[in-house]
Design brief:
By secondary structure, this protein is α/β, with parallel strands linked by helices. It contains 15 helices and 20 strands. The chain binds inosinic acid (IMP) and magnesium ion (MG).
Length: 446
């Protein structure tokens, strides 16, 4: 069975949670490779909504192993809170493992991030202020604390003291009260007790499982355009959300990533600051935001809304080697007479041949649009009858042609049942029969 990465091709919030949930029955293991509790993956099962921030959505299925890789930054209290929510749903936490090498988010990380964002004022990144960036900074600076450090109290206390004393200097500079190293140590020593049974050598474990013939779904968080290296820097997250992050974030050889499924919203959204060429300035943006319920699952912020940007998604497909797409939320577009799609950019009057590497250029590009006729009918109903409006088929085909990838799944609503499969194209990604059974609820979660 193939190992597949499922990741976002835009600025996050493409609807990855639902897609991962649908595909999970075809895999043995679901693994997160980057990000932290800045993510918000919403899954709705028979009207019950669950938002997961850190633990892979695969946990909603019996018997699946869920893994948090070394590329993730882990907030112990956020993790434990999520475990408690899952317990309320009757889910056994024994199947959730954390890499020994995953870096820990510490209390000073979010405190410092808030101070820095405030100082940036107009130029702020608009982060989730969860301490994600500062935790990755400490990782790169080689002073971070890792999950494995929780297992040795003496070592933990020393490392916490060193870090807190250093961070206090910065906190004081921002006019903040300093932290007590002993109190931070005691807090984290308390978490250590509960986290201990979950901490393992994830890379070795995954390689053993692969040798036994098990398969892995690599679950991406955020989206390609928020990738630290390849996204719209500096308005990005601090991890490798694109496919390259799978190998470094889990300790998996490149040859073990057999396919990459790109999750793409039929329009575009972005939370936080940064360039967004197809952002809609008029009331049509409001319509998308309301119909699509475009409010952040993590921060509750209203997402900025825009038309589908084929330049950005084509770039993401090339970067990740995506040939198959899961297209989400086209039903949000049901009401429009005409639907613009961005087919190219011009910069200072000249067409650009490729996606600009510089955010300052992207900020100033003029998007070129092609207007496609709207289908003006309910796609959710069409999905049930299996009869697609021709105009929707044309819209989808235009998107596919522009980004050079084919849709193997189309999602027209939050429920599992509101999904259309293209089984022939799904092969190599997941077992079409298993996904179909899942849609009908025969393999329903719990
Ligand atoms: P950070 O990840 O909290 O550092 O935030 C950096 C940027 O990524 C900000 O623009 C956030 O709004 C954005 N971001 C982080 N996580 C998500 C997500 O899960 N969905 C969408 N945007 C996100
Ligand atoms: Mg989200």
């Amino acid at each position: 069975m193939a190992n597949v990465a499922v990741l976002g091709t835009q600025w996050g919030d493409e609807g990855k949670g639902k897609i991962v949930d649908l595909l999970t029955p075809s895999f043995d293991i679901i693994a997160r490779y980057q990000g932290g509790h800045n993510a918000g993956h919403t899954v709705t099962i028979r009207g019950r909504k669950i938002v997961l921030h850190l633990i892979p959505s695969g946990i909603l299925h019996r018997g699946k192993l869920c893994v948090i890789g070394n590329g993730v930054v882990l907030s112990p209290p956020a993790f434990l809170e999520e475990l408690d929510v899952l317990r309320e749903f009757g889910i056994n936490p024994a199947n959730i493992l954390i890499s020994h090498n995953a870096h820990l988010i510490m209390p000073y990380h979010s405190l410092l991030e808030k101070c820095r964002e405030e100082c940036l004022a107009e130029r702020k990144i608009g982060t989730t202020c969860r301490g994600i960036g500062p935790a990755y900074e400490d990782k790169a600076a080689r002073r971070g604390l890792r999950a494995g450090d929780l297992l040795d109290q003496g070592w933990l206390e020393d490392k916490i003291r060193e870090n807190v004393l250093e961070k206090n200097m910065e906190l004081v500079r921002f006019g903040q009260p300093s932290l007590d190293p002993r109190a931070v140590f005691e807090e984290y020593a308390g978490y250590a007790q509960r986290l201990k049974p979950h901490i393992v050598d994830v890379s070795t474990l995954l390689q053993q499982r692969l040798r036994r013939g098990q398969s892995i779904l690599f679950e991406g968080a955020q989206g390609t355009m928020l990738d630290l290296d390849h996204g719209t820097y500096p308005f990005v997250t601090s991890s490798s959300s694109a496919a390259g992050g799978v190998c470094t974030g889990l300790g998996i050889p490149p040859g073990q990533v057999h396919a990459v499924l790109g999750v793409t919203k039929a329009y575009t959204t972005r939370v936080g600051s940064g360039p967004f060429p197809t952002e809609i300035p008029d009331e049509r943006g409001e319509i998308l935001s309301k119909r699509g319920n475009e409010f952040g699952a993590t921060t509750g912020r209203r997402r900025r809304c825009g038309w589908f940007d084929a330049v950005a998604v084509a770039y993401a497909c090339r970067l990740n080697g995506i040939t198959r797409l899961a297209v989400t939320k086209p039903d949000v577009l049901d009401v429009f007479d005409k639907i613009p799609v961005c087919t190219g950019y011009r910069y200072k009057g000249t067409p650009l041949r490729s996606f600009p590497v510089d955010s300052r250029v992207l900020e100033k590009v003029e998007p070129r649009y092609r207007e496609l006729p709207g289908w003006k009918t309910s796609l959710a109903e069409a999905a049930e009858s299996g009869r697609w409006p021709q105009r929707f088929k044309d819209y989808l085909r235009t998107l596919e042609d522009m980004v050079e990838a084919r849709a193997c799944l189309v999602s027209t609503g939050v429920e599992r049942s509101q999904t259309i499969l293209l089984p022939r194209l799904l092969r190599g990604i997941a077992d079409p029969d298993q996904v179909r059974a899942q849609l009908r609820g025969r393999l329903a979660g719990r």
